[in-house]
Amino acid sequence: MARQSGSSEEFARPLRRFFVGGLVLILFAVFVLWRIDSPRAERFRAALVDAVVPQMDWAFVPVTKTVELFEGVQSYARLQQQNQDLRRELQQMKAWKEAALQLEQENAKLLDLNKVRLDPALTVVTGQVLADSGSPFRQSILLNVGAGRDGIKDGWAVTDGLGLVGRISGVGQRSSRVLLLTDSASRVPVTIQPSGQQGMLSGDNSTLPVLEFIEEPEEVRPGDRVVSSGDGGVFPSGLLVGSVVLSRDGRLRLRLSADYERLEFLRVLRSRPAEVIGGDAALIGPLLPEAAAMMPASEDLSDG
Amino acid sequence: MAEITHAGRWTYRGVFLALAALVVFAKLLPLHPGPGRFPGPDILVLMACAWIVRRPDYLPVAMVAAVFLIADMLFMRPPGLWTALAVIGLEALRRRSFMLRDSGFLTEWLTVSAIITAMFLANTLVLAVFVVDQPGLGLTLIRLITTLLVYPIVVVLAARAIGIRKIAPGEVDRLGHRQ
After folding, report:
1. Smallest Cα–Cα separation from B126: which of A34, A290, A161, A142?
2. How far are the Cα atoms of A155, A158, A167 from residue A270, in angstroms, in the given order?
3. Residue B12 binned pLDDT confidence (cut-offs 50, 70, 90)
4. N or C: which end of chain A has fewer CB atoms below 10 A?
5. Within this chain, do residues A203 and A96 fall inside the same structural domain, yes or no?
6. CB contact (8 A) between residue B83 and residue A59
7. Which is more confidently placed, A212 or A134?
8. B105: CATH
9. Is the pLDDT at B156 greater than 80, yes or no?
10. Nearest to A139 among B35, B126, B130 (CB)
């Protein structure tokens, strides 16, 4: 700034200091407000992101595709190696496919015999990944489906077709935010498959989230399948999450089934809250006095 | 006559805004969503520091607040806290910019490092006091260190590509005013 025009600055300086102080106070007040009334602030944030980010979509797509193209070119260098690996994998997969087909037929037959009705309320909305969270400490992504057209709601589960990816946390009209399982705020109740142990999957900003609160950890082995348990009514039960691994620090962690390297199209599962069964006395037990008093006529008829 | 210098200053302010928008855009690109990435430097803070030390008049405090607040909102950070700390830190740097103008780059780097470290510390402390979920200490430390190490690169780029240089003693603008 012009140093020689000190006279005007002399007047401006206390005013400026006042302005800066006020600004800092307002900003801290915003932070405190966010801390006190987090849902409202987050709703405001979702609305802001909803207004800004889908506008930039036209710019996101070409840049992302270009970068992916270059990464694809780089991987051509390892083509021979990759080809061999893929052939070997394909051979294994064929064996698996055969087994899966047989199992599928068997399963269909058994289901038909049992007259089991699969949950018809579980439909999906597929969305495309719009943007990253932008911060290395927040593991979330933005999808291009929102509350407006698609009726997305908070808490719905998101998968990539194979495994669980996360849950919806924050919806706007045209976009919704997915909190990934790896975020340090993410907690999902899970079941570990063969042993049936219940546990809690909690993210810690690393690629392998931690399995916590397992009743008998000695019954859990690396390689066990982990599915969502449906406790707490947040997620539908039985969604594949991943497999157990033992990390170097001796903790049980989870290798996620969802391909976190390529999150591009994701499925949001439309789930409805489970029905609450009330009035347990009405199911089994003696007839209540007033019900008995109302039905003597019909009872006589049936007796006669 | 004053309007011409005014226009020049606003051009540089516009350049800063455009660069900030570019940084935000690059961070939001859905290239590798998910964890396991090395937490890179906080380019916005570095840019603001390099600007404030060299040309305090190109970066008014209201602009700092606006840019950082929008970044807070878009990057899912607690809104307002990092902005407030950035305003305080950058104002402290602005007050020292006359002193830093006459000293070498090492002094500048140390001063900027001290201020950014203080900002990170204050951020961690306030979040701890308000019991907000925080990333691990190790990740924050890595982010701080990369941020401090990248500062010279940002300075060189700002000087070479955009022409944000320190004002030399006795330098005059096109109209002969001392800066």
Report:
1. A34
2. 10, 9, 11
3. confident
4. C
5. no
6. no
7. A212
8. 1.10.1760
9. yes
10. B35
State mean pLDDT over B144-159: 92
Domain limit, last residue, from A69, A99, A118:
A118
Number of structural domains found in chain A: 2
Token pair for A94? 């064929």
User: How far is CA B25 from each of CA A63, A131, B98, rounded to the nearest angstrom?
Assistant: 10, 9, 33
Residue that has been written with the tokens 């707490």 in this structure: A232
Q: What is the CATH number of the domain that holds A207?
A: 2.40.10.340
> What is the rounded CA–CA span in Å between residue A199 and residue A137?
24
pTM of this prediction?
0.72
What is the tally of structural domains in chain B?
Answer: 1
And the tokens for B52? 């404030």
Average of pLDDT values for B139-148? Answer: 91
Contact criterion met (CB < 8 Å) for B30 and A45: no
Domain that includes residue A244, residue range? 121-270
Confidence of residue A303 (pLDDT cuts 50, 70, 90): very low
- Is residue A27 in a domain? no
Report the complex ipTM. Answer: 0.86
The nearest CA of chain B is from the CA of A199 a distance in Å of 21
Q: Which of B25, B135, B178 sits opposite A56 (nearest CB)?
A: B25
Chain A nearest-CA residue for B41:
A136
- Residue pairs spanning A and B at CB distance below 8 A: 148
Which of A48, A49, A60 is closest, CB to CB, to B29?
A60
Compute the distance between CA of residue B48 and CA of residue B147 in angstroms, rounded to an integer: 13
Nearest CA in chain B to A131: B30
| Candidate from A116-130, A208-222, A260-274, B35-49 with smallest mean pLDDT | A116-130
Q: Is some CB atom of chain A closer than 8 A to the CB atom of B8?
A: no
Beta carbons within 8 Å of B7's beta carbon, 6+ residues apart:
none
Listed by number, the residues of chain B in 45-74 with a beta carbon closer than 8 Å to a beta carbon of chain A are 56-57, 61-62, 65, 69, 71, 73-74
For residue B4, the model assigns a pLDDT of: 45
Q: B31 to chain A nearest CA, in Å?
A: 6
The confidence band for B170, taking pLDDT boundaries of 50, 70 and 90, is low
